[in-house]
Every structure is written in C-alpha cells, then in structure tokens.
Amino acid sequence: MSRNGNILRQIDWFTIVLWLMLALFGWMNIYGATYTYEQTTMFDFGNRAGKQFVWILTALVAGGIILLIDSRTYDILAYIIYAFWLLVLLVTPLVARDTKGSLSWINLGPVSLQPAEFAKCFTALALAKWMSRYEFKVRDLRDFIVPFLLMAVPMFIIMVLQKETGSALVFAAFLLMFYREGMTGYILLIGAAAVAFFILVIRLGVVPLPLGTGSWGIVVCMLIILIIEVFFLLFLFNDRSQGGPMIRWSALGIAATAVLTFGIALIVNIWIPVPFEWVTTSLVAASTIYLGFLALRWRHKEILFIMLFSLGSMAYCYSCDYAFEHILQDHQRSRIEVLLGLKDDPAGVGYNVNQSKIAIGSGRFLGKGFHQGTQTKLQFVPEQATDFIFCTVGEEWGFLGCSMVLITYLIFILRLIYLAERQRERFCRIYGYSVAAIFLLHLTINIGMVLGLLPVIGIPLPLFSYGGSQLWGFTILLFIFLKMDASRFNQSDNN
Question: 71, 290, 313: which is closest to 192 by C-alpha?
Fold first, then answer.
C-alpha cells in the first residue's frame, strides 16, 4: 500500500463494523428496556430509543469528521485540548445542577453534557504526547511522576469537585498502559494488594477467631504479607545473585520463625487467651526490620521494596476500618456492606443489583424474547437503559445473547490491542493502548456491577448504554485512534 493511499482503503473497517454492531444492538436493547405499549416505533424521538438513534447518527458524523482531520493535529494540540478541558472540568461544578448528589452535568438547551466522559480521551492524548518525547525513557518510577500527575489531576477534579466517583475511577485504566510502556509490575501489585487487604479487613474483621482473642481480618492480612515476603526472597534471588544463598535461607528463616511463634502461641492459649492479631503484627514488624538489615547489607532495591511494601501494608490494614467508617459516605459504605454480605438490604441499597440478577437469571439460555422481559416491562430494575442495560440483554436474549455481546467486546478490545501494537510511532501506540485499557475497564466494572460482583458506582457499558455523552466520548476516543492507524504508513519508525 502506498504512503498516500486512499484514506478509505487505509481505515480499519473491521473495528468500525464492531463499533456499529455494539451501538446498534445497544440501541435495540434501550428500546426493549424503555418500550411501552403506547409506543409504536423505535424512531419515536420522544423516547430514549429515538434519542439514542439520533446520538448514533451524530456520532457517525463526528467520527467521519475526525477521520478527515490530519492525524498530526492530535499530536500538536494534545496539551492545548487537555488544558482547555481541565478548565471545563473545573467550571462544571459551578454551573451544574445537582443530579443524585453529582455535579457533573452541564445543561445545553435540550441536551445535557457530561464533560468527564470526554476527559478520558483528552487525557490519553496528553499522556501519549508526554511519553512519546524523544528524551522520555523508562528507567524508574521517577519517569512516571508527570504522567501520574496528568492522570491524577482530572481524576481528582471529577471525584472531589464533581462528586462522580465512578467516572474518576476509570482513569485507573491508564495504569495498564503505563505497565505496557515499562512501568514496574510492583505498582499493579500494590494496587491489587490494597483492594484485597481492604476487603479482607472489612469482611473478616467481624468474624471472631476460634482461639484466643480478636478477629480474622488483621490476622489473615498479616499472614499474607509474610507469605509475600517469603515468596519474593525465595524466587526473586538465585544462587548467582549477590548474597543469593543467604537471602534464600533468610526466607526460610522467616517462615520457620512464624510457624514456631504460632506453635508457642497455641500452647500458651491453652491457659491464657492470646491476641493473635498482635502476634501476627509483631511477626510482620520483626520481619520488616530484618528486611531492612538485608537491604543495607546486600544493596538490593528489591529487598528495600519488599520492606517498604510490608511496612506500608501493615499501616494500611490498620487504617482500613477508620477509612471505612469515617471517610466513605453512607451510601458507599452501605453498597460495600451489601456486596460483602455484611448487610442484607434487598429493598434498599441492594435493590438494583438484586433485581438485575433476577432479570438476568430469568432469561435462562435463549431469553424471553424481544419486548418480552417482565422485569423490564414492569420497570423493576432502575436505570435499566443506562448503567444496568446488560440485564435487559440477559432477560430478553438469555445466556446466548449475553455471551455474544461479551465475545463481541472481547474481539473489539483484542483488535484495539492489535492495532496499537502495529503503530510505528510511540505517540500512536501509547494512545492506542490507552483506548483499549479504557474500554476494558469500563466493560469489567459495568458487568461486575450488574452481576453483583462489584459495588454499584454508575459506570455505563461503552457504546451500549443510553446517553449521548458516553457514546460521543467513546466514539471520539476510538475514531481518533482509527485515524492514527490509517495514517501509520506516514509515521516514522519511532518506538
């Protein structure tokens, strides 16, 4: 293919077909979720389905315009657009109406706009611009300070000023792109550990130990920290590493000390109740001090990381209860309690998820048929056309329909990764991975929320849920990347 080949031949039409399939099937399900017997057509513009059809058409026009713009424009204007949109995000809480506690919507005559949906795209451009600089090299975490700030500033504005937690959390998707570009996997480990420790402390903190005093929460977390220490020391260093044999023996020594201490504590518990929370915490504290000694002696950054991880994890675990009781808002705390089984509230906080699972389960394998969903018709599931649109798929199209939707999303995201990997310029590759990561995180959170596996935080199903802002936001995000891909033969080999 020539460098100046026709733009229509260079565009990845397969991805556009997948985009159109998801948007149109979402439109059908919006019609199914909002259908009434008085409504006779999907093109009734007084109904959500009719409005969504208009949004799809306008999104197509916007996508076409994006494909006609020189791809270098997005590189040149990346910082300017990002700065302008930060200003829009700051102004939004001042002019927005309170919508269910959120200040994230701007009224523009007959339509409403949610700037946070577009901020992901412009943040991705700014990140790609910064990280594609010639002098940018991935050496250590200091290289990611500016990218983290570019990600964190809009995230903070949306979460704190606009009070839109769900939209803010989606910015964490950029961590996956950072990892692809060379960020250490330790950051992902810290994030996963933070979530796991929080859940364990809150869920098991109310379960008393069968022996001694205290509950399972802190004990289990401290044991996990000890296991992580032992695992890293055993498998991160081999006999050829500086001090490798001694470090590996140290790991076995930490494990043996823990087992011996527990054995003594169990024997003592026969006569005196033992506070096992303090026993496990003391073990982690002692092992942390010992890791500090090893780090100083052998000058290994990995051991220093393990020590800091253990110390930070120990402090974090003891702060989880305070954060849960005093920092989280009442509705957030209630949703987590329902999710973790600490509270049963099927008529209150747990109502949406409970009705959603009923709707999905009632569809069985083939579904009840288009317009035949009883949960839908009787409007048992709130927000069924927006955040909970997937339960309409489950009820009317069944397991088969749900599987086809998820397979389509899987193919779509894998295609984006493939397109990102074949880019010749770092700017385009970084932006492409950002697009794939945003779609993946949106999909994961929304499906997990609908199935009751994650808290309800108001994340739409991309291209599928009702709403012009989300459809336009994802379309702009995607079509900018498709334009970059179509221009890849004019890109220089800069990776």
Answer: 313
